[in-house]
Amino acid sequence: MARFNKMQVLDAIVSTGMVPVYYNKDVETAKQVVKACYEGGVRAFEFTNRGDFAHEVFAELIKFAAKECPELILGVGSIVDPGTASLYLQLGANFIVGPLFNPEIAKVCNRRLVPYTPGCGSVSEIGFAQEVGCDLCKIFPAGNVGGPSFVKNIKAPMPWSMIMATGAVEPTEENLSAWFKAGVTCVGMGSKLFPKEMIAAGNWEAISTLCRDALATIKKYR
């Protein structure tokens, strides 16, 4: 079961403003990436369900995080159906993220008071997600559904909305400042935070530095 309650999860995501998004089929590489992010100040991390036996990697990762990164809140992403959500909840996922909105997933997560952040591409989808208890909604793919201006225009008639932007987010001051000035609650960041050459070289300190710098930029523009 989840080690952190719903309020703790949302507080960590809101307070840091960034959730790294990552998948690797190799358990040891995944562990090193999680540890590097943790040392860079990350407190919420999304491991994505994007490969065969990904749940087996996650099972090892969450046990590792509990021991080596005690304050890290580990969740799972790329979830599109309630059965897969249930599998990861049983393995200890602290939050569930999806590329789409499936109200049946909300039921599974609500039953255990675990946050569900669905992917939404319209104002109506965000509204429907909020109706079933999704506190934090993800706009995805953020760069294609309207970018920062889309967020700004959502917040005007629906100022209570908590928005995570994922897709087209980069660890640069220009990019992050635009998202946070528009009013996002947080961002999800994937490949730009984990350059392939850094992973291949095992340059974990460089990843920690990228995380640290991105979090500093977010703090500056909130």
Automatic annotation (TrEMBL):
<protein>
    <submittedName>
        <fullName>Bifunctional 4-hydroxy-2-oxoglutarate aldolase/2-dehydro-3-deoxy-phosphogluconate aldolase</fullName>
        <ecNumber>4.1.2.14</ecNumber>
        <ecNumber>4.1.3.16</ecNumber>
    </submittedName>
</protein>
<keyword id="KW-0456">Lyase</keyword>
<dbReference type="InterPro" id="IPR000887">
    <property type="entry name" value="Aldlse_KDPG_KHG"/>
</dbReference>
<comment type="pathway">
    <text>Carbohydrate acid metabolism.</text>
</comment>
<dbReference type="InterPro" id="IPR013785">
    <property type="entry name" value="Aldolase_TIM"/>
</dbReference>
<comment type="subunit">
    <text>Homotrimer.</text>
</comment>
<keyword id="KW-0119">Carbohydrate metabolism</keyword>
<dbReference type="GO" id="GO:0008675">
    <property type="term" value="F:2-dehydro-3-deoxy-phosphogluconate aldolase activity"/>
</dbReference>
<dbReference type="GO" id="GO:0008700">
    <property type="term" value="F:(R,S)-4-hydroxy-2-oxoglutarate aldolase activity"/>
</dbReference>
<dbReference type="Pfam" id="PF01081">
    <property type="entry name" value="Aldolase"/>
</dbReference>
<comment type="similarity">
    <text>Belongs to the KHG/KDPG aldolase family.</text>
</comment>
